[in-house]
Design brief:
Elements (H helix, E strand, L loop, with lengths): L6 H19 L11 E6 L5 H12 L3 E6 L11 H11 L2 E5 L3 H11 L3 E3 L7 H15 L6 E5 L4 H13 L2 E5 L8 H14 L3 E4 L2 H5 L4 E4 L11 H7 L7 H4 L7 E4 L11 H4 L6 H20 L3
Parallel strand pairs: 1-2, 1-3, 3-4, 5-6, 5-8, 6-7, 8-9
Helix pairs in contact: 1-5, 1-12, 2-12, 3-4, 5-12, 6-7
Length: about 300
């Protein structure tokens, strides 16, 4: 979870992502994961997270093993803690992309090896590491910027709120009233924000949130596992689209972000995601370097 990181640790991870990006782009041979095997336990499909962690492991000199939950005994009812104990005896690290945060917690408790939350129903911390690195590349800083998040108060939103508080970045959230971020995380982030000078605003007005923003961020309205709620969600999020009109109230040099995959014409328009203010593709590429930073950092904790 984002709250597991101190400001110094988060800053170190962002710096590490930049360092590794330069080294990987130059073709430098890296060996920080030499002899290490990283297991990717995924209950959900993935493009960027899976590929990012697999390629990062390979480029750091290690080996990855993809473990689809559907092909494990988990699919037949084996307790997570039993699977965790066995995997911990085989692997050096586990990267988990799962439905429930409790699964990540049990893997961490019983495996005896480092476990990375690569997405749960509660948070998506590795996404935010890549996001903040991308903002640093675009804006040169985090502290004092205004990030506007428009849409569902989901796992990405929860991690963005906590990460922004840790870094002293102001964040304004525009979410329908029944789709606000997790209350416990919001309260914790507000307490952290008081120590870092960050402000956290929650509203149901996208225009208010986007006003004078340095960065405007959105995510899908219907996440994996929420397909049964699609029609209700589409009605609730009508008016929460990131489009050219909304960007008019933000700063002239506003950057637009989306963690992907994007449903063009719903949460974001095609002209915006493909436009000059979009840094979405850099954001997607940087999932690789964020993943590499996390893996190298954990390898150094052994």
């Amino acid at each position: 979870m984002m709250s597991d990181l101190s400001a110094a640790e988060l800053d170190a991870l962002l710096a590490k992502a930049g360092e590794l990006k330069k080294k990987m782009k130059s073709g430098q041979e890296l060996t920080s994961l030499k002899g290490k095997v990283v297991g990717l336990l995924f209950e959900k499909p993935s493009t960027r997270t899976r590929t990012g962690f697999e390629v990062a492991t390979l480029r750091l000199g290690g080996h990855s093993l993809y473990l689809s939950a559907n092909e494990l005994q988990l699919s037949r009812g084996e307790p997570v803690k039993d699977t965790a104990r066995i995997l911990g005896g085989y692997l050096d690290m586990i990267v988990a992309r799962v439905y429930a945060q409790d699964t990540v917690d049990q893997l961490a408790k019983y495996s005896g090896v480092p476990v990375v939350n690569a997405l749960s129903d509660l948070e998506h911390p590795t996404q935010i590491i890549a996001d903040f690195f991308t903002i640093m590349e675009a804006k040169g800083k985090l502290k004092g910027l205004k990030l506007a998040y428009i849409g569902d108060g989901d796992n990405v939103c929860n991690s963005l709120v906590m990460g922004s508080a840790i870094e002293g970045m102001n964040i304004a959230l525009a979410c329908p009233r029944t789709y606000h971020p997790n209350e416990a995380i919001l309260e914790q982030a507000q307490a952290v924000a008081k120590t870092t000078g960050s402000t956290i605003e929650v509203t149901d007005d996208p225009t208010k949130a986007a006003y004078d923003a340095d960065v405007v961020y959105t995510d899908v309205w219907v996440s994996m596992g929420e397909e049964a709620e699609k029609e209700r969600r589409l009605r609730a999020f009508k008016g929460y689209q990131v489009n050219t009109a909304l960007l008019e109230v933000a700063k002239p040099d506003v950057s637009v972000m989306h963690c992907l995959p994007a449903h063009r014409g719903l949460e974001i328009t095609d002209d915006v995601i493909e436009g000059p203010r979009s840094i979405v593709w850099k954001q997607g590429e940087n999932k690789l370097y964020g993943a590499a930073a996390v893996l190298e950092w954990l390898a150094g904790l052994d």
